[in-house]
């Protein structure tokens, strides 16, 4: 599945910090769809369908939930980013269920929660049989440590022997975007160790290490091509900054400096028609609980 080239027309003051709502919309409108091939590959492998009761950690603005729901799965998402969750509600729920309505949504609709996964036990008492983590780990210092508490809260909500899917970036040599992400590392090089949230190269065993520490049993893995395609340079910069992988760099310098250097790093990936194209590979690891 090839991502659609997207163009973003919003204009902001480049010297101002990025508004969380603007960044969430950039994620939903520009960047999130780049991971759709990863979602589809996982769902195909696990035969996600009407019998699936899925809990998604870090569900973001809900595209992975939407794809699973289209396959007739019952879906529940949890995230700490309220701006992204608001966009997920717009996507997944009728207006009456999200516009000032109660949380959670009425029974039978996708369920969306903010905060700790321990609060998302199924209302009908039937446990989940699939847990997904589609926020790719392994490129941000400390991301696996942040994931472990969420996994520990969510695993008791699963039926015994359920599938758990972890995802991450592929090897840097297979990800053209890695060269652009190195901008984040260079701008935060003031400390000996990577700053919290700062970019680092993905390691071969990142996913297996998280699975081991969470007490999960790996039983399969795969790699999926997820090219990043953008209609123009502005869309590419906004999409990449919405990933949060440049947050530490913005704190260390400022947003306009980061945007400038990201744009320069993207030039080798521009085509003659002005579009930006970067082939990437992502990994997934299927475990049993």
TrEMBL record:
One of its GO terms (biological process) is methylation. Residues 55-92 form the Methyltransferase type domain. It comes from Streptomyces yanii. The keyword Endoplasmic reticulum does not apply. Keywords: Methyltransferase, Transferase. Gene3D superfamilies: Vaccinia Virus protein VP39. This is Methyltransferase domain-containing protein. GO terms for molecular function: methyltransferase activity. It holds the Pfam family Methyltransf_11. It comes from the Bacteria. InterPro entries: Methyltransf_11, SAM-dependent_MTases_sf. The keyword Transferase applies.
